[in-house]
Amino acid sequence: MYATTDTLATAPAAQGGRSRWLALYTLCAGMLMIVLDVTVVNVALPAIQDDLGFTSSSLAWVVNAYLIAFGGLLLLAGRLGDLLGRRNVFVAGLVVFTAASVLCGLAGSQEVLVIARFVQGVGGALTSAVILGMIVTLFPEPREQAKAIGMYAFVASAGGSIGLLAGGVLTQAISWHWIFFVNLPIGVLTVVLAVKLIEKDKGLGIGKGTDVPGAVLITAALMVGVFTIVKPAAELGWTAPRTLVLTAVTLVLLAGFIVREATAANPLVPLRIFRSRTLTGANLIQALSASGMFGIFFLGSLYLQRVLGYDALEIGLAFLPTTVVMGLLSVKYSEKLVMRFGPRRPLIVGLSLIVVGLALFTQAPVGGSYVVHVLPVLLLLGLGGGICFPALMGLSMSDVKPEDAGLASGLIGTMGEVGAALGLAVLATLSATRTASVADTKPALDALTDGYHLSFAIAALIVAAAVAIAVTVMRPAKQPADTVSEDEELVCEAA
């Protein structure tokens, strides 16, 4: 069930109706800027490589430097929001991200760009980690909260496909520098609006949760883990000695973190938070669904580029139907679905539609038609995402205490980020391995397509596992009283 006034009301919830929605738009603008950055940069990578002289292997650091900082700091950033005030952390993150964006745009060397991208990741983590926690405190009433989370979920999940289009336009029309410069006016405006529209919350105070050893352990574990996924695992394989060593280091750091949190007087991440089946299940589903969806957007883009011959702008336009459908459902209908059926049923239905779409993608051939072989897949992904992601975001925060809202927000973001990185690495590796294994017996495009088909099938299985968790682990959510029949109430009481 969604958060209630008793469990999550804090000072920001006292804001007037209109100002709360303006505050929500401000939070979504900040999130959109962060989400756009990932795919905008991916589209511009060839231009960056030509201009700054990156090798194929070193070019990956333009993306990896951001992902390591972002994924490594999300959980810590969320807890800092609880301790220092979520608005303070949100604004600080925007300032860091915007300043680093300008530095990226001005970069004239590989080293400057990679360092600036790392700093961008720090700012992105600070900004995005606290947003969901701020939304549930701004909108404690279930119906409004469902609508607000629907808008947030649309921005968080569909913003990447908007970035493909924006990156193609900016890179081809002006230069790659402007994919970063465009963040300056957006960032400055968002900071001004955040200070004006979002009430300042005090936070618990740094003394209530200071856990420096825990912070060092979890940040190091996440950074090493993300680095292992995006670098040695993706390039050398999962059984390479370097990958195994770094995986072992990650596990040791995580074990040390768990021991620390179980014994610390003021733990950074109170382990009691994981007693909630709803929160734990939602985070597992987030990791699995992100693994399947993010990897498919990346590999689907490669299919359009390498097999069907699309350029960057055409790829961005090709993914627009997903954005449109997801946006329409998330913003206009997700709240109605959640209020009518509860969040669990839309979650299961939406994830199932994604599974069908991914399975359908395994039939896309060499020389396939966009209308016949690609568009139906993208429509199903948009339909499924628009139905399930708002429900998932609501469930992830439904059992959270006010003092843990920032932590829970950072946790769901961390699971999505790590899941996306892991999914991309696994699917890309499997795809490349399959292509290499049939390269001697099939034409080049057929071999490529075989590899993509395998990754699409594995992605479908991954999201199917998320469906299984939604069915077996997530507790059925009660429907609002005005939508539950007498027979249904009796059944609930009997249960």
Automatic annotation (TrEMBL):
PROSITE patterns: MFS. Keywords: Cell membrane, Membrane, Transmembrane, Transmembrane helix, Transport. Signal peptide: none annotated. Residues 23-478 form the Major facilitator superfamily (MFS) profile domain. GO terms for molecular function: transmembrane transporter activity. Gene3D superfamilies: MFS general substrate transporter like domains, Multidrug resistance protein D. It is found in: Cell membrane. CDD domains: MFS_MMR_MDR_like. Its main location: membrane. GO terms for cellular component: plasma membrane. It holds the Pfam family MFS_1. It is a multi-pass membrane protein. The chain crosses the membrane at residues 21-47, 59-77, 89-108, 114-139, 151-170, 176-198, 210-230, 242-259, 280-303, 315-334, 346-364, 370-395, 407-432, 452-473. This is DHA2 family efflux MFS transporter permease subunit.
